[in-house]
Amino acid sequence: MKPFSFKHISMAGLVSVVPDNIVSNDNLPHLSQDEIAHLINTTGIKNRRIAPPHITASDLGVCAAKELMQRLHWHPEEVDLLVLVTQTPDYLLPANSILIQSRLQLSSSVFCLDINQGCAGYVYGLSVVSALVSSGRFRKALLIAADTITHTIGSHDYSLIPIFSDAASATAIQYDAHANIDAWFCVQSDASKYDAIYIPDGAFRNPTNSKSFEEICLDSHSTRNRLNLHMNGQDVFHFGLKNVAHQVENLLKETSVDPNTIDYWVFHQANKLLNDRISAKLALPQNKVLYSLYDYGNTSCATIPLTICHHYEKFEHVSNRIVLSGFGVGLSWATACLHLQPLICSPIIEYYEC
Amino acid sequence: MNADVFLSLIQDQFPSDVRDDIGFTTSLRSIKGWSSLQALVITVAIDETFNVLISDADLRQVNTVSDLYHLLLSKKQNHSDLS
Questions:
Q1: I need a surface site. Which of A16, A161, A249, A269 has the fewest CB within 10 A?
Q2: CATH number of A1-354
Q3: Residue B18: predicted pLDDT
Q4: Predicted pLDDT of residue B83
Q5: Minimal Cα–Cα distance from B30 to chain A, Å?
Q6: Where are the alpha helices (DSSP H) in A184-289?
Q7: Residue whose C-alpha is closest to residue A182's, from A335, A7, A342, A3
Q8: H or E element in which residue A10 lies
Q9: Distance (Å) from the alpha carbon of B74 to chain A's nearest alpha carbon
Q10: Residues of B in contact with A241 (CB under 8 A)
Q11: Domain B3-82 listed as CATH 3.40.50.10350
Q12: CA distances (Å), A122 to each of A182, A244, A289, in order?
């Protein structure tokens, strides 16, 4: 796919929120201490943040958006675009962006849009917001990327439990007539392996039925049912290794961006094994590839902004040229190359009721 | 591609106390410590060393280390036929 670009947009700020409940992979059942050490070393994930059942992705997202607006001194009436990326909505309908619009006390004239995307979703969302804001019709936009993906995982699915975690982020994008550097995007998707990451039952292709609750054995310790997240790790690795580095290389080549001019590379935080291999394929210098896996795991669509907040001091006071790349459910993969002005950006915040 | 290099690569992905038990006729799934995570570790090692990607369908059709080696050879052959 040919990359596309937009001018006259700037990222003003970024806030990420996680639940305060920390669960460590040190305490996983059914594994020896050696096996646990191997798992942590291979996945790069030590701790995860797990939202209790009554806290939803939109709760985390509202908290992030309120914090962000406060820090930017944005008044609710100024916001004219709200895009929400999530796959763990409060309800199948209405659109969750509309629920958040109300909770943030935004105007009824705000353009609200939900994007059903996961690990590539932050870049997908950024591309949509950038397109709308660069038109000049929308001046101040909020992009919320939020998932409580752990709520989709079977309580005995020890193939997925050690990986996933919950988080939300809010990003402020504004129209800036003086922002003349192109923001570049490349987004792709392919449903030929849609079932490599999916939830089989509970929507309208396979409505919930009595078989939906039957536990399926994965191995001697792990089970999941058809209402839980299913993931075929082997197919996801095959997809990630085949496509991500290629897309990043293609975007930089098509846009004549010299990789040596990139200050930081922020990939979706899938797991260390896959991320390290993608970085190695691109021959990236390790000190320029940012991670947040160890403390926060894989938080679905929130990993990229969460990782930026984890390294907020690199973005607070200086301009940066960065590459962002997300990949996962769909299967979808998306890469952006952006020039960032100094960001209003804080360390990761723990959720509080607001 | 040298078969012994391939065998060493597979052995190197397992703890030292298991390596010596792994030969060409060893069933992958019988290796102590084999898991879905370990399959991914091997997938990455093969990609890194031989530039060949192993899919879930590929993995399902192999049983022994030798099967995996021959799968790799055939994928390498297909790759060179295409290029």
A1: A249
A2: 3.40.47.10
A3: 87
A4: 46
A5: 14
A6: 233-254, 272-281
A7: A7
A8: strand A9-18
A9: 17
A10: 43-44, 47, 53
A11: no
A12: 18, 15, 18
CB–CB contact B43 A280 (8 Å) = no
**pLDDT at residue number B33:** 82
Q: Tell me the residue length of chain A.
A: 354
pTM of the model: 0.94
Rounded distance between C-alpha atoms, residue B39 and residue A346, angstroms: 38
- Chain A residues at the B interface, defined by Cβ less than 8 Å, are 34-35, 38-39, 42-43, 159, 219, 232-235, 237-238, 241-242, 273-274, 277, 280
| Predicted-complex ipTM score | 0.86
Structure tokens at B15: 């703890």
What residue segments make up the domains of chain B, in order of their start?
A: 3-82
Q: Is A294 exposed, middle or buried (0-12, 13-18, 19+ CB in 10 A)?
A: middle
User: What is the Cα–Cα distance from B62 to B59, expressed in whole angstroms?
Assistant: 5
B54 shares contact with chain A (CB less than 8 Å): yes
pLDDT tens sequence across A312-353: 999 999 999 999 999 999 999 999 999 999 999 999 999 999
Residue numbers in chain A where pLDDT is lower than 50: none
